[in-house]
Request: fold
Amino acid sequence: MGEPAARQRDHAYSSFTDKLLSRDIQPGQFVSQRELVELTGMPLGAIREMIPRLEADGLIRTSPKRGLQILSIDLDLIRNAFQLRRIIEGEAFASFCRTAQDDDLARIARAHAEMREEAARGVTPDVLERAQRMDWAFHDHVVDHMQNRIVSDIYRVNSIKIRLIRNENTRMLPELVVSVMDEHMPIVEALIARDEAATVAAIQAHINSARSRALEFE
Reply:
């Protein structure tokens, strides 16, 4: 038997976002449903069912007579995506500061210290990739810790947009690894101290720094 339609739709969505973030699909590009079939390797039915979800998430829009247009990166996207990120993560990190388990905070602190030390010795492609994954996982973990599916879903879509912006101009470059870890350390230290105000101030400063890097390229 074939794969259930809902699962095919989910796989098509995941494949589309993977292709988008890897730049096999370009921001602002026009594509047809048939081209998406070729790009994702998913059947046409799954692509057609995926499109309303992509439209609702703001990742594509339907243009009469021209087909489907991929999300474009512009000043409004950068400002709006980072504003939403500040709103969600401000609440998420405040909650995490109050409710996270001590061993979870110790694990996060240890991972950051080890990555900071390793990056200071030299940033290889492997170190860069692991630092980027750790950066994303840290933020995702804190947001998911709220156990609010609505917020997590909104954050997930916004994260795709943020990461698309980063691919354009604010991805973690080798020379940024140590500085990004240095921005994370005050957040981690405030969490360990259970200082909610300092935690929120530190995460907002970190997000503002990433936003500034993005705006420099506009």
